[in-house]
């Protein structure tokens, strides 16, 4: 079994502009979600599309850290990859408002 990977998730924007966030580790997620996180960390270094978010839409941010490397990914709501959407949904459910 591999060591847990730490994830910091944040959602910002939206009509009310309320930011939510959660810190978690892959050992607290399903194996499929953990694999998605590990694949995002290991993917070739490419920047997600930098298309501007539409007004009143969300922006999602993942900071992934396995202790050796760190990767920051940011997507406007319309550009989240299909294979990442279930992970975003789960992390959104676990999130709480931040000041």
Please tell me about this protein's structure:
The structure is a single chain. The protein has helices spanning 31-42, 85-94, and strands spanning 6-13, 20-25, 58-65, 70-76, 96-97. With 99 residues, it is α+β, with helices and mostly antiparallel strands. The protein has one domain (6-97). Strands 4-3-1-2-5 form a 5-stranded antiparallel β-sheet, with helices on one face. β3 and β4 form a beta hairpin. The chain is globular and about 40 Å long. The model has no long low-confidence stretch (mean pLDDT 90).
The strand line-up of the biggest sheet is 4-3-1-2-5
CA-based gyration radius: 13 Å
Helical run tally: 2
- Please describe the biggest sheet, giving its number of strands, its sense, and whether it closes into a barrel: 5 strands, antiparallel
Shape: globular
* Contiguous runs where pLDDT drops below 50 for at least 5 residues: none
Instruction: Name the helicity range.
Output: 10-25%
Distance between the termini: 36 Å
Estimate the mean pLDDT confidence.
90
Provide the succession of SSEs. EEHEEHE
Topology:
Elements: E1 6-13, E2 20-25, H1 31-42, E3 58-65, E4 70-76, H2 85-94, E5 96-97
Antiparallel strand pairs: 1-2, 1-3, 2-5, 3-4
Throw out a few tags for this protein.
single chain; five-stranded antiparallel β-sheet; globular; 2 helices; 99 residues
Short description:
The chain is α+β, with helices and mostly antiparallel strands and about 100 residues long. The protein has helices at about 30-40, 85-95; strands at about 5-15, 20-25, 60-65, 70-75, 95.
């Amino acid at each position: 079994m591999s060591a847990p990977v730490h994830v910091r998730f944040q959602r910002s924007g939206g009509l009310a502009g309320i930011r939510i966030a959660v810190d978690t580790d892959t050992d607290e997620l399903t194996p499929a979600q953990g694999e998605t996180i590990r694949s995002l960390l290991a993917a070739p270094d490419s920047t997600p599309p930098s298309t501007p978010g539409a007004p009143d839409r969300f922006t999602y941010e993942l900071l992934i850290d396995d202790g050796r490397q760190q990767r920051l990914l940011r997507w406007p709501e319309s550009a989240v990859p299909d294979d990442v959407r279930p992970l975003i949904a789960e992390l959104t459910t676990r999130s709480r408002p931040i000041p």
